[in-house]
Amino acid sequence: MRKEELSNWGNYPKVKAELHFPESAEEVRQLLSSAQRLVPRGNGRSYGDSSLGKAILSSKRLDKFLAFDEKAGILHCEAGVLLSEILEVVVPSGFFLPVTPGTKFITVGGAIAADVHGKNHHVDACFSEHLLFIDVVVETGELIRCSKAEHSELFWETVGGMGNTGFILGASFRLKPVETAFIRQESLKAKNLEEVMAFFEESESWTYTVAWIDCLQKGKNQGRSLLLRGEHAKKEDLPAKWKEKPLTQPKKLQLNMPMQLPGFVLNTFSIKAFNFLYYHKQFSKSSKAIVPYEPFFYPLDFIHNWNRMYGKKGFTQYQFVLPKEKSREGLKEILDQIRISRQGSFLTVLKLFGKSNPLAPHTFPQEGYTLAMDFPIRKGLPDLLKKLDEIVLKFEGRLYLAKDAFMSKAMYEHTYPEFPKPSIFSSDQQIRLST
Ligand SMILES: Cc1cc2nc3c(=O)[nH]c(=O)nc-3n(C[C@H](O)[C@H](O)[C@H](O)COP(=O)(O)OP(=O)(O)OC[C@H]3O[C@@H](n4cnc5c(N)ncnc54)[C@H](O)[C@@H]3O)c2cc1C
């Protein structure tokens, strides 16, 4: 056991916690017998308070690969294994993660508990879609293997269940075969929201799509953005220099944010300037390239500790989804509200989700557009978020629990009506939202 001050990726809120590092179901069982609230935690890459609490059950020492069937592309590993570690092993063998979020520094347990989505939700759904089984230690201390066929109730409560049903010890899931470690990428410049939405809809046959929006534009420029779409490159797509070793990425430079930046560095001017430069980095309406998979999937991982850019007070990510038929109107209202508040977001990411899975009620994605924005913690922020919540509710959307630190109890109860009641495994977030 270790005592530490902890926060998740947003550096807000912070808690003083006791950390436990079990290595087996038996050790989890022993800790449970002390009957205090024990919060499951992976790599703390959620943004708010979803893996925080006074006593933490970390998966850090559950870091073993248990089996890798290279023929069938099936991996069985412990819950604390990072996606980055999986990629290092499976890509050279011609496989890729079936679903990955925008950072590879998350654990398998965290991927299951948040039922993460990637840029391919409209094609490949969420992480749960690819799971064969998961092993969970539940409140009674029992270790239960559950899947879509066996103990299916526990399975569907656990995926997207944010750790509430128990501590995930390990999982088995199917990987995706790939011929190369590269992506065939196209980048399209959209002059406004109408155009980027049209690009998304005409790109539905592409496996990966995502757009970076300049959230401070108004009028006919509102929603101007760059949309990226991509496919795993085939061997014949590669230039000669990469053809010889198609499953090896070129080595790259890794940067680090050495310290917290002072809060004033992020202001309307710097955010406007960044968004201007980002939008104009591409001159032509469209461009094509073959790129290694890392900059395509994980552009932010290139700078270690980039979250320090937001200073000591930290930041929050606000991610919501709106039903598809209401998205256009809702997104306009949200973007108007942000511009009026003069609290723009450096990075604003838009994605189009495909159909949701009715068996997985806690999983965030629903068919429609999802927008994610980062806001520094400062005085006017709670008021802005309250106004955004009202718009999200008006258009029948909801927020992503893995990013949330501010949602009200009323909004949570209205938008996650089937979420289980707090248990011995509940995080500070669950307690905040249910009491
Ligand atoms: C830069 C960046 C980009 C991101 N992009 C995306 C994205 O594109 N799509 C997306 O879906 N998410 C995205 N995320 C969010 C991230 O994928 C999720 O928050 C993920 O759950 C973090 O995993 P973790 O291992 O760090 O878990 P933690 O943050 O430690 O925990 C997250 C939740 O999982 C639970 N949990 C963790 N381990 C276990 C376990 N062993 N047993 C039971 N419960 C457990 C915790 O209690 C908590 O509720 C992004 C995050 C960052 C920082």
Task: Label this structure with key terms.
25% helix; 8-stranded antiparallel β-sheet; 26% strand; 13 helices; alpha+beta; globular; 5-stranded antiparallel β-sheet; 435 residues; binds flavin-adenine dinucleotide
Give the class from helix and strand content and strand pairing: alpha+beta
Number of helices: 13
In which range does the helix fraction lie?
25-40%
- Report the β-strand fraction as a percent range: 25-35%
Mean pLDDT: 93
How are the strands of the largest sheet arranged? 16-12-14-13-19-20-18-21
Kindly provide the radius of gyration, computed on alpha-carbon positions and rounded to a whole number of angstroms. 21 Å
Q: How is the main sheet built?
A: 8 strands, antiparallel
Straight-line N-to-C gap? 29 Å
| Coarse morphology | globular
Small molecules bound in the structure, each named once: flavin-adenine dinucleotide
Low-confidence stretches: none
- Number of separate strands: 21
